[in-house]
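One thing: mind reviewing this one?
=====
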Amino acid sequence: EHWKLVTSGSRQCSTPAPNPPTVLLHNHYTLLSAGDKESPPTVKETRPCTTKVEQSPATTARKKCRVVVVGDSLLRGTEAPICGPDSSSREVCCLPGARIRDVTEALSRIIRPSDYYPMLLIHVGTNDTARCDTERIKCDYRALGVRVKEFGAQVVFSSILPVKGRGPGRERCILEVNAWLRRWCRQEGFGFLDHGVLFQEGLLGGDGVHLSRSGKALFGHRLANLVRRALN
């Protein structure tokens, strides 16, 4: 299986692959989102976002501020709400078919040392749950955590969305991984965007994995709202 790196913004490149909810954001943000489907996540800022790059004021001022959203094919269709307000400071990197390890390997081609990243938002894991190997999934998330810490950005992990018609084993795997991911993010100082059961009712597409049109709209809105607050 191959995935193609599709970016929204100033870059386009392709690379062969090897393949109520609560939001917890440590460091700069604490977010609480309503459980109602019509209500977007709301944000309460506990302290202002500050640049942690230890450079002179002149050098820091020259750095381009960018928020990157990276993950699997569920990000397809979220480009407009996320990047629409300002594509120069927001980028969606969709890697169809990607697993956690693929995102880990792709980050070095996505993150630019010359830019400043107030937030890196990661949504991946659905394809990994097909094997229902929770221990391997946790191991891959830990390796990804080590990698993202090298960039010095505020990192947020988005919870794995539910699937339908793929058997109780996979559903249990998703629930178990999300529960662990929430605890792990808290321990490691990462943010966690928990979608809960918001996407279970009528928001999945015919294949039971990807989102319907209304599901994509809601998903894109939730991610875009988080990106907007990171840049403000």
The chain has one domain: 67-231. DSSP finds six helices and nine strands in the chain.
